[in-house]
Design a protein that fits this description.
Elements: H1 13-30, E1 50-57, E2 64-65, E3 71-83, H2 92-108, E4 122-123, E5 130-131, H3 133-136, H4 141-153, H5 159-169, H6 179-194, E6 203-206, H7 211-220, E7 225-234, H8 242-245, E8 248-250, H9 256-261, E9 269-271, H10 274-278, H11 280-283, E10 288-295, E11 300-307, E12 314-317, H12 321-336, E13 344-349, E14 356-362, H13 373-381, H14 390-393, H15 402-412, E15 422-424, E16 441-443, H16 445-451, H17 454-464, H18 466-476, H19 496-501, H20 509-516, H21 526-537, E17 541-543, E18 548-552, E19 559-562, E20 567-570, H22 575-590, H23 593-598, E21 607-613, E22 621-628, E23 635-641, H24 651-661
Parallel strand pairs: 2-12
Antiparallel strand pairs: 1-10, 2-3, 3-6, 3-7, 4-5, 8-9, 10-11, 12-18, 13-14, 13-23, 15-16, 17-20, 18-19, 21-22, 22-23
């Protein structure tokens, strides 16, 4: 049987070569000869023999790998067009002309779409400009920078106030410039101030420009313009694991103070979601400063690092990329084969460690297209919410998958044993007379799990009460933080406490019945379902789920930190109880032609439990939690298909993951 391997060190030759090329390009970029560069106020330390210029050298962000050393998120190099304070022309008129020539070159070389995304608060053309909607929205990033700009420059927080300040400060005369040119210059100067442009901070005019503009600007010798080499994220598996890996983005108003306190530049790219955010501390590279001394003729006479840049560290995940692809492909196939279904989620765990082997949410998105405004807008407009990570944020009633935990609680508290039976006539003849899906006849606990008999569990619900069950199921992982490093929802544990805390109607005895079969107020995430089933099939130990396998030093691969399995709780499960539950879950599969058909290609027997969760106004949600092998579980897979109608319909995706796992 194949198990995902962890800790394999990747081949480093390609890394060495890439780093060497990056370093060579950086050196070449620093040697680009500019026109005569004069000292500006605050722009450098003047000396008799020449002048000094400083450069920010970006620290390379660490990369992300799967458990086997397969690259998931890497870096590539690109050129950014920057404007440097120390290389500016002598007069304001020359500076303005330099900026306008730069914009003209950008547009004429087809780089117009590469202009840096900005927070400019005016729209339209000078002099008929007005504030943007974002500038008026107190929750927006633009408003934060607008407020900061006006306070710092003591200008009125209106369109006229901003235009008046910029026009006066930067000598934007209508007799010298067209309205369109003034508009361009106002936008650039506003952005320069927002980015704290000055002696110690350049301004990025355009990102990821092509070679044509580099050649043109070098030939034009526009003063103040230079190029900066930067690393950008690349994704060898486009569209795979997007919800897990997460996005990079600019610092927002909400967390600007935090990043400033931690020595970030306001224009820095930081992790906004997923692993990029969760492991920001490890992945982040730290910028360095290079000092170059020139003689009075502009010849370089010395170059050295005042502060060397530091590369971020590499993060290795517990994810197996082959299992991840199988999970995503299987989930998509599963959803698309059901006419009413549009969405779902699947989670895969190692039950003996809590390692997350795969997480998938459908529909999903492609990180390689995330910077495309039209693509991003289409994601926001999609009613099926592709940006929403259902595996960690979706809260669902567990349906009959809850019966495993209910049976465990009943067996361990002696509320029932293997010999106790109930007769199912299709109706439970007490309280509000709830129904079952069939007339099952005489049922013991194994029979009741196999057939998913509601009547048997109504009996347990009435005799035990839901609180006695949730004492076990919560400790097994339902309604409890899983420990995963990403953002997740805790869920809802059904019972009187939840009702009281939220000012809802009082809990009634009849509620115990629906709660015992996984309905009522229960609401849990797909990952919690996998943690819960893992805790049962491994004998009662709940491990914290985790994605971080190890952190390794960039370039050398030295292991800096590893994640050891962490026990969150232990639930006593007697050997007889364990044997009964495993037998019952094995019969769920072997006793169903549909389920046994899904898993017929595996080299081992499997176990599982179906669930059908009722949802007001919608088709029921299909749930399947499976594990394999039956006798010695190595992985647990839980799948939810929204509006899948019948629990067994969620087993297709689970079978695809297991087939990949045991593939020779």
């Amino acid at each position: 049987m194949q198990r995902p391997k962890s800790g394999k060190r990747p081949h480093l030759f390609a890394r060495y070569l890439t780093l060497g090329l990056i370093f060579a390009v950086l050196c070449a970029a620093f040697l680009i000869t500019m026109a005569v560069v004069q000292l500006r106020e605050g722009g450098g330390a003047a000396q008799e023999e020449g002048y000094i210029r400083t450069y920010t050298v970006p620290g390379v962000r660490g990369e992300i790998y799967d458990r086997n050393g397969v690259l998931l998120v890497g870096n590539s190099t690109g050129y950014d067009l920057i404007y440097e304070y120390g290389a500016m022309p002598d007069t304001r008129r020359e500076v303005n002309l330099s900026l306008l020539a730069t914009v003209e070159a950008i547009l004429e070389t087809g780089n117009g779409d590469k202009l840096s995304a900005d927070c400019f608060v005016l729209e339209g053309t000078y002099p008929k400009m007005k504030l943007t909607a974002a500038a008026k929205d107190k929750d927006s990033n633009d408003f934060y920078h607008f407020e900061r700009f006006c306070e710092r420059n003591e200008c009125e927080a209106t369109a006229d106030g901003v235009m008046s300040y910029l026009k006066k400060r930067y000598k934007l005369s209508e007799t010298l410039y067209t309205d369109e040119e003034i508009t361009h210059l106002m936008r650039l100067y506003y952005e320069m101030e927002r980015a704290d442009f000055g002696a110690y901070a350049s301004y990025t005019v355009a990102k990821d420009v092509n070679r044509e503009i580099i050649t043109r600007l070098e030939e034009s010798n526009i003063e103040g313009v230079n190029f900066e080499i930067r690393a950008e994220r690349v994704y060898p598996y486009p569209g795979v694991a997007s919800h897990i890996l997460g996005q990079l983005g600019r610092i927002t108003a909400e967390n600007a103070d935090y990043y400033l306190e931690h020595d970030y530049d306001l224009d820095a790219l930081v992790g906004l979601s997923g692993c990029e955010a969760a492991f920001e501390e490890w992945l982040r590279g730290k910028d360095g400063t290079m000092v170059i001394r020139y003689d009075d003729r502009g010849n370089q006479i010395e170059k050295y690092y005042e502060t060397e840049p530091q590369s971020g560290n590499d993060v290795y995940l517990t994810i197996d990329i082959d299992l991840q692809r199988a999970a995503e492909d299987g989930l998509k196939e599963n959803v698309e084969q059901i006419r009413a279904a549009d969405a779902g989620a699947i989670t895969v765990l190692d039950p003996d460690t809590g390692e997350v082997l795969a997480i998938a949410s459908y529909p999903t998105y492609d990180l390689t297209r995330f910077d495309d405004a039209d693509y991003y807008a289409s994601l926001l407009a999609d009613g099926n919410l592709p940006l929403y990570n259902r595996a960690l944020q979706g809260v669902y009633a567990p349906g009959s998958t809850y019966k495993i935990g209910a049976a465990l609680a009943a067996l361990e508290t002696n509320a029932v044993n293997e010999s106790v039976t109930q007769t199912c006539t299709g109706i439970y003849p007490h309280l509000h007379n709830p129904t079952c899906l069939a007339e099952h006849g005489e049922m013991n606990v194994v029979d009741a799990i196999r057939e998913s008999c509601n009547v048997f569990f109504y009996y347990l619900g009435e005799s035990m009460g839901i609180d006695a069950m949730t004492d076990y199921t919560r400790r097994l992982g339902l309604g409890t933080d899983t420990g995963i490093e990403l953002s997740e929802r805790t869920g809802i544990v059904a019972g009187s406490a939840y009702r009281e805390e939220n000012g809802l109607m009082d809990w009634q005895k009849g509620d115990d019945l629906s709660a015992a079969i996984g309905q009522s107020d229960h609401g849990y995430t797909p990952l919690q379902l996998s943690v819960y089933v893992s805790s049962v099939v491994n004998g009662g130990t709940r491990y914290n789920a985790h994605l971080l396998d190890s952190v390794r030093a960039f370039y050398t691969g030295e292991i800096l930190q590893t994640t050891e399995p962490q026990i969150a709780d232990r639930v006593t499960i007697s050997d007889p109880t364990y044997a009964l539950l495993i037998e019952a879950m094995g019969q769920v599969v072997s006793g169903s032609d549909t389920l046994s058909g899904y898993f017929k290609n595996l080299p081992c027997a499997t176990g599982g439990k179906t669930g059908t969760a009722e949802v007001d106004g919608k088709e029921a949600y299909a749930i399947y939690c499976g594990f394999a092998p039956l006798e010695d579980p190595e992985l647990v897979v839980s799948c939810i298909i929204e509006e899948g109608a019948v629990g067994s319909r969620a087993a297709l995706a689970v079978s695809r993951v297991m087939e990949e796992y045991f593939r020779e």
